[in-house]
């Protein structure tokens, strides 16, 4: 990759305006959300100054956090490149997500149109929407830049300036700092493509509430076609979640700024559907239901899970994620950590922080056990992880079997340490070792965790995560004073636990 070329600009600040002189070594994008053609947004940009005879322009095939091809290039049409005289420059489409632009050094502008990605998804494919973009000229735009903005393979790690033309009443909710140039134009900068894609934005008439949790500034932005001024109510729920997560993570949230972008759509479908996509400083939460009564409970699960992703993979991750290839990514073997341990923290934190009853916690574990039965549990988790795109039929087991493995690992660590340390402590140690732009070698992680903990933990990984031995639920739950009926899938307290079991259970869940 090229070395990072820093963005150089001079700012002249006036009330509600901003003027900037931008370095030519910058992608300068214009996105028009005001003048749509049907459901298509017009995008244009000036490439960074270069001396290239040709360049490969890429719109992502995948993005971090999703493990199936999304092919965002399918929404791009009419891609045209021109020189400074307005003459067209030859472009060759290589595949669904990439184009070869010839004579790139003479290209002055590239323009194209992007269709609403949600329109092409099936009604039961809600989980794919949180990585895509949706355009409604009159009310709302949910924007993930991976579907609107691209990069040249030969010019990566270069800053971006994005100018957005939008409805004068619309407000940009994002972890990035949007500046108002005039009433119809916002400007935002990102240090590179990864940061841009990592920072979605919700454009609509604002319904926002700000929170301060410790040193962390939190923005809660909400959109629903009917409801207004609802973000304050949601913020109260999120504040409770974050304060408990803060305590669970040792008293400090590992991020200075965070944004919850919440889109709620009224639906005639039965039940409640929700999903989210995590980012370093924000999350997109999408909910669909006929009643908002379910929203509070959904926030406790989806928002909590996505926020816990700031631990892993956003702080703790392998080289495959640090140097993510948006066109042909290599998969890490540690989805047990990225998704399984994140989901375990999501169900462990409420009982540890006394947010739920013991019966509710038992029910959560029983649901995971029941969910696990729908998959092939004789497969190696590391192998499924490395082949996540090919094994989509098994992928969701990381959210079922994964947290159960996390539970067993937690109990084993508590047992070996005399109750002193568990997975909470392990994650904090891993963040110290691999956070702040660092990464681990995919093949070394199990050995590195063993060095941080106990020799017996290497056997745990060999048997249950690399290997295919059944999750030792009955054995490990007995260590903390629970019975597990393998026939009914029910979990309950032992009637007469001994002092060792009681002590270990208290260390594990606080009761």
> Rg to the nearest angstrom?
24 Å
Which outline best applies? globular
Distance between the termini: 52 Å
CATH hierarchy, class of the largest domain: Mainly Beta
| β-strand number | 25
User: What is the helix fraction of residues, given as a range?
Assistant: 25-40%
Task: Output the CATH topology of the largest domain.
Answer: Immunoglobulin-like
Query: Stretches where pLDDT falls below 50 for ≥5 residues?
Result: 1-21
Largest sheet descriptor? 8 strands, mixed
Domain count: the total is 3
Structural class comes to: alpha+beta
In the CATH hierarchy, what is the architecture of the largest domain at level 2? Sandwich
**Order of strands in the sheet with most strands:** 7-6-10-4-3-14-17-16
Chain-averaged pLDDT: 91
Number of helices: 15
Q: What share of the residues does DSSP label as strand, in percent?
A: 25-35%
Describe this structure in words.
With 511 residues, the chain is α+β, with helices and mostly antiparallel strands. The chain has three domains: 9-204, Immunoglobulin-like (Sandwich), CATH 2.60.40; 208-300, Zincin-like (2-Layer Sandwich); 319-509, Neutral Protease Domain 2 (Neutral Protease, domain 2, Orthogonal Bundle). It is 30% helix and 28% strand. It has 15 helices and 25 strands. The strands form six sheets. An eight-stranded mixed beta sheet has the order 7-6-10-4-3-14-17-16. α3 crosses α4 and α4 crosses α6. The longest helix is centred in the middle third of the chain and has 18 residues, at 231-248. The radius of gyration is 24 Å and the shape is globular. It starts with 8 loop residues before the first strand and ends with a helix. It holds the Pfam family Peptidase_M61. This is Peptidase M61. Residues 28-203 form the Peptidase M61 N-terminal domain. Residues 301-404 form the Peptidase M61 catalytic domain.
């Amino acid at each position: 990759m090229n070395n990072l070329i820093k963005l150089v600009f001079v700012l002249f600040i006036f009330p509600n305006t901003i003027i900037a002189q931008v370095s030519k070594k910058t992608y300068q994008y214009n996105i028009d959300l005001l003048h749509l053609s049907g459901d298509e947004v017009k995008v244009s940009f000036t490439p960074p100054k270069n001396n290239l005879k040709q360049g490969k322009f890429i719109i992502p095939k995948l993005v971090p956090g999703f493990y199936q091809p999304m092919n965002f290039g399918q929404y791009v049409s009419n891609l045209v490149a021109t020189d400074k005289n307005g003459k067209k420059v030859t472009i060759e489409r290589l595949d669904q997500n990439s184009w070869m632009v010839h004579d790139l050094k003479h290209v002055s502008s590239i323009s194209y149109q992007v269709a609403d990605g949600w329109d092409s998804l099936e009604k039961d494919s809600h989980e794919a929407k949180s990585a895509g973009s949706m355009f409604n000229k009159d009310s709302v735009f949910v924007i993930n830049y991976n579907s609107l903005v691209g990069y040249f393979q030969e010019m990566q790690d270069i800053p971006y300036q994005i100018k957005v033309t939008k409805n004068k009443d619309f407000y940009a909710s994002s972890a990035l700092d949007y500046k108002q140039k005039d009433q119809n134009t916002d400007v935002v900068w990102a240090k590179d493509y990864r940061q841009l894609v990592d920072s979605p934005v919700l454009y609509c008439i604002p319904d926002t509430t700000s929170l301060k949790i410790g040193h962390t500034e939190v923005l809660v932005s909400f959109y629903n076609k009917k409801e207004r001024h609802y973000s304050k109510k949601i913020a109260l729920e999120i504040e409770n979640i974050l304060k408990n997560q803060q305590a669970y993570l040792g008293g400090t949230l590992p991020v200075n700024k965070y944004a919850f972008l919440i889109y709620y759509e009224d639906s005639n479908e039965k039940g409640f559907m929700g999903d989210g996509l995590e980012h370093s400083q924000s999350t997109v939460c999408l909910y669909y239901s006929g009643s908002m009564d379910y929203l509070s409970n959904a926030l406790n699960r989806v928002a909590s899970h996505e926020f816990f992703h700031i631990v892993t993979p956003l702080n703790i991750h392998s080289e495959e994620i640090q140097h993510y290839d948006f066109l042909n990514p290599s998969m890490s073997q540690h989805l047990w950590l990225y998704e399984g341990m994140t989901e375990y923290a999501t169900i462990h934190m409420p009982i540890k922080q006394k947010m739920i009853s013991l019966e509710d916690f038992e029910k959560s574990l029983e649901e995971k056990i029941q969910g696990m039965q729908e998959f092939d549990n004789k497969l190696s988790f590391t192998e499924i992880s490395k082949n996540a795109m090919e094994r989509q039929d098994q992928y969701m087991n990381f959210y079922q079997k994964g947290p159960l493995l996390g539970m067993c690992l937690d109990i084993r660590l508590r047992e070996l340490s005399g109750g002193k340390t568990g997975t909470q402590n392990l994650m904090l140690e891993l963040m110290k070792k691999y956070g702040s732009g660092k990464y681990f070698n995919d093949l070394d992680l199990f050995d590195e965790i063993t060095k941080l903990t106990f020799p017996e933990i290497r056997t745990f990984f060999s048997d249950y995560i690399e290997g295919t031995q059944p999750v030792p639920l009955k054995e490990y739950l007995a260590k903390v004073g629970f019975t597990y009926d393998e026939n009914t899938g029910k979990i309950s307290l032992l009637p007469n636990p001994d002092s060792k079991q009681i002590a270990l259970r208290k260390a594990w869940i606080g009761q």
